[in-house]
Amino acid sequence: MILREALRQAEARISAHNIPDARIEAELLLMHALGIHRAELYARLGESLPSGAENHFRALIERRVRREPAAYILGRHEFYGIELHVDPRVLIPRPETELLVETALDFLRRLPQEPPRLVGDVGTGSGAVAIALALHLPGAHIYAIDASPEAIDVARLNCDRHGVGHRVELLVGDLLGPLPCPVDLIVANLPYVKDADIPQLMPEIRDFEPVAALSGGADGLDKVRRLLADAPSRLLPHGAVMLEIGLGQADEATSLARKHFRQGKIDLLRDFAGIERVLQVVT
Asked: Which residues of the chain form CATH 1.10.8.10?
């Protein structure tokens, strides 16, 4: 079978399972099976698919039509221009979380004092936010916290790959508990899915991603509520808290922030879809 035909068949099979962007997914899996980039793939479309690669490709397609996320099949995912290792031990970083990074970078760059900037990244998962901040702010020291030791193992692998292990300190524990000192910024992408909504999630999320990284309790704000209660004592003067929140949670999250930061400046930032996605509290 030539590559062009293998690609066409894979696209049709993926599309038949109502998976969006079937062509792109087929290309990614074929490139992975062959160990090549897109430019080389298109230069070789008229060539035959080697038998070993064909079997591998078919196995990858079968995994995808069973709704295993492509990022887990490939073992990698891009976030904020950074390629990260991901696997079922961690949530796959979402594009909307890039707003959290951009907002954090803007705040940290505006701080009047000299570096180092001290940051607590709570619920670090793959280390996506912590690594992005470390790469764009060489004067920052980041405490990256997660309740899952398995997630911390993935974050350590990614920190080592990107050469920031000396500035991203990985800590296992509950929310702000492991934080060793006050920081300039607390940034967190905590679980915020309502427990009742989890069964209705896409199968890629519901059946493959870690439930502990999704489940936010009855209203989705259990961990946000606890973090905001503890955060005032964990910040340096003129510090800030930035939290990713879900659709429809802005009002309740803002009320929680006002309860614990009576003098704080509270803002809501919208993501590319117009959803109020980041809650920002500046003391």
From this structure: 3-66
**DSSP calls for 87-128:** -TTSPPPPGGGHHHHHHHHHHHHH-SSPSPEEEEEES-TTTH
Say yes or no: domain 77-282 is CATH 3.40.50.150.
yes
pLDDT, one tens digit per residue, over 188-239 is: 999 999 999 999 999 999 999 999 999 999 999 999 999 999 999 999 999 9
Torsion angle of the four alpha carbons 178, 164, 127, 102, in this order, in degrees rounded to the nearest 10: 100
∠ CA 215-221-224, nearest 5°, is 105
Task: Give CATH 3.40.50.150 domain extents, the chain.
Answer: 77-282
CA atoms within 13 A on the CB side of 162: 27
C-alpha–C-alpha distance, residues 135 and 87, integer Å:
22
**H or E element at residue 74:** helix 70-74
Q: What is the CATH number of domain 3-66?
A: 1.10.8.10
**Token pair for 154:** 């993935």
pLDDT tens for residues 36-95?
A: 999 999 999 999 989 889 999 999 999 999 999 999 999 999 999 999 999 999 999 999
0.85 exceeded by the pTM?
Answer: yes
| Structure tokens belonging to residue 157 | 């692998």
R_g (Cα) of the chain, nearest Å: 21
| pLDDT tens digits, one per residue of 138-162 | 989 999 999 999 999 999 999 999 9
Residues 6+ apart with CB under 8 A from 233: 182
